[in-house]
């Protein structure tokens, strides 16, 4: 099965994706903070809040949402060594 673009997704699917990405960023922030990496923790948390804020606006213009989600997924991938699997939460695959 191929993935859908944001435009092809229903509002519910978009909302679920945004919530999943934001929650995973919060886990990244928590793990970074545990490691003493305050910069990554703050960046991930701010990005999570921005992504969640984007959920409200996503119905109007999807380009900013796409860019934010791409950035968020990059941050998640770069910090995949922070033990997301051990937390009982899984990031995006």
Summarize the structure.
By secondary structure, this protein is mainly alpha-helical.
Would you write up a description of this structure?
- This protein is mostly helical.
- It has one domain.
- 67% of the residues lie in helices and 0% in strands.
- The chain has helices spanning 11-35, 38-57, 62-78.
- The longest helix is centred in the N-terminal third of the chain and has 25 residues, at 11-35.
Q: Which spans have pLDDT < 50 for at least 5 consecutive residues?
A: 84-93
Distance between the termini: 14 Å
Number of strands: 0
- Portion in helices: 55-70%
Strand content: under 5%
Return the average pLDDT rounded to an integer. Answer: 83
The structural class is: mainly alpha
Radius of gyration: 13 Å
Shape: elongated
The largest β sheet comes out as: none
Helical run tally: 3
Helix and strand pattern? HHH
Number of domains: 1
List keywords for this structure.
3 helices; about 90 residues; disordered C terminus; about 0% strand; mainly alpha; elongated
Layout of helices and strands, plus pairs?
Blueprint: H1 11-35, H2 38-57, H3 62-78
